[in-house]
Prior knowledge:
Protein name: Flagellar basal-body rod protein FlgC
Keywords: Bacterial flagellum, Cell projection, Cilium, Flagellum
Radius of gyration: 22 Å
Strand order of the largest sheet: 1-5-4
Order of helices and strands: HEEEEEH
Number of strands: 5
Structural class: alpha+beta
GO cellular component, one term: bacterial-type flagellum basal body, rod
Strand content: 15-25%
InterPro entries: Flag_bb_rod_N, Flg_bb/hook_C_dom, FlgC
Largest sheet: 3 strands, antiparallel
GO biological process, one term: bacterial-type flagellum-dependent cell motility
Amino acid sequence: xxxxxxxxxxxxxxxxxxxxxxxxxxxxxxxxxxxxxxxxxxxxxxxxxxxxxxxxxxxxxxxxxxxxxxxxxxxxxxxxxxxxxxxxxxxxxxxxxxxxxxxxxxxxxxxxxxxxxxxxxxxxxxxxxxxxxxx
Length: 135
């Protein structure tokens, strides 16, 4: 951490950065939904960020992206002998991505990001009003 304590702009900014990482992983998952490969090992599996709370002092905490992990969801095996990627048994594996859950994550992430934008706008307005009072 820096030598100066976190302020409202640092806290909201870090939260917004974490939500951007979450939105990027969701976009990656959505981009790969429905993709097929010739083996279960090659099939895409959804990725998710792991967040960690960062508490500088009592009452002052924010979030940090600790890691990005691959989910344990298994790809879906589908018999499609005419597909060019089908294995010797005529099977292909569809990526392990739940599109519905990803859409819910996307909406939730956008709302959390917007909430932090509102926090920054409110803090800015309060600071400007305080400066005006001092004139």
